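User: My notes are a mess, but here's the protein and flavin-adenine dinucleotide's SMILES. Can you give me a structure?
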Amino acid sequence: MNQQEEIQKKKKSKLRSEYDVIIVGTGAAGLFCALALDSSLSILMVTKKGMKDCNSYLAQGGMCVLKEDADFDCFMEDTLKAGHYKNRKESVRTMIRRSRGVLRELLTYGVDFDRQGKELSYTKEGGHRKRRIVHCKDETGKAIVEGLVRQVKSRGNIQVMEETEMVDLIIEEQTCQGVYLHFNEDSFTQENIHPVYGRATVLATGGIGGLYENSTNFRHITGDALGILRNYQAEMEHLDYIQIHPTTLFHREKDGRKRLLTEALRGEGAHLLNHQGQRFTDELKPRDLVSAAIFAEMKREKTDHVYLSLRHLDSKVVKTRFPYIYAMCKDRGLDLCQDLIPIVPGQHYHMGGIHVNQKSRSSIQGLYAIGECSCNGVHGKNRLASNSLLESMVFAQVVAEDIKLGEGLINPRSKNLPKVRDWQEFLAANHAGLRERIEANNL
Ligand SMILES: Cc1cc2nc3c(=O)[nH]c(=O)nc-3n(C[C@H](O)[C@H](O)[C@H](O)COP(=O)(O)OP(=O)(O)OC[C@H]3O[C@@H](n4cnc5c(N)ncnc54)[C@H](O)[C@@H]3O)c2cc1C
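Assistant: No problem, the inputs look usable. Here's the predicted complex:
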């Protein structure tokens, strides 16, 4: 046995057949949930790639927070307005009310948000009437995920399996008893599919961007939970609510992922220009409206991109506030402070998903969904900038509380033998036409 095989064998030997809670996904939602759960519970976390290969890590702009009580109604109204009033108000209220608690928790986990003097620094993005977004330069997601990962690794009750894919759920009589897992390095034979039982299973598998050619998302985030749940008649909600981000860099990327130019750039004063160098829209309208304005301008000019310009802004401020984006553009031969930056709208976020109630429970007993794969109605038809990290973590906390009460737990262990099937065929069938079905709101 070579060294690689030894490592794989060791990894497999660590996998138990039963845990209290199984969490699928190591983005902000999954990680925050694992940390919020009682430390007496045994927790398994799995992720398809490495722990930090999640869209949460890519977040640039920041995380909304209720800065002062007086902002409650304004924050609520901005979220509802961006969502075209299709939001579930109760969920929005929960998110805003709990925002400071999440921020406090992140600070205790060592996330180093930017400050002005001793006070936290707040920025603004499209659709916000007030500065209420905390940030870590332009790599907020990286700072948050790294802080959470550090904590998770220090907890003895949380086991993380990387390069491990959930290929199915163990669901019988509309009750979820766990997951079927497959290690990436293995072939898809029956003996390489591992049933793992849990008293509660939490889906935190993120969005659907990998199903699109032009998306800011990691390519491996492909709506897997939605594809799997198609087989079990789980309730879905607003699957066709898909967000297109106005400003992704118009550039062919080797890894196929479009690079985002955060809305905070426009929040700090960047302009959108057409090929005549003219502004053509209010840059701070909600995302869907700005994207629509860009598409209309591209159509009018018969071009495949427009420009973002920061040339009129103080270059020192730009470089200090957006060092990651400055370097990313530089790598591609563009000077963020001097050049017109070519941009095009791209798929960015999925507002719809697995229907959950106020406790984040899905319609299947024992199965929760949180973060982007779920739909608790916070975002309505269009997500307000920087609400998703917050929403992911707020409802992760809600799940932990529900599990603590014991209400969401089931008695695991089906007596049935694991399903025998052609697993590769099963996976292919789950993904076949998935994007089209999501867009047609008909899973
Ligand atoms: C470029 C970019 C910038 C963004 N900027 C912001 C921002 O500034 N502010 C903000 O609030 N939001 C922002 N967002 C959105 C936000 O980052 C995410 O929507 C949110 O964090 C979703 O978190 P999540 O935990 O639900 O999913 P993710 O962070 O995407 O994590 C999904 C996890 O599920 C795993 N997974 C998926 N399928 C499987 C499977 N079958 N088996 C095992 N594991 C699986 C993945 O490997 C991953 O670990 C941005 C998104 C992008 C792409």
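The chain has 14 helices and 19 strands.
User: Great, I'll file this with my notes.
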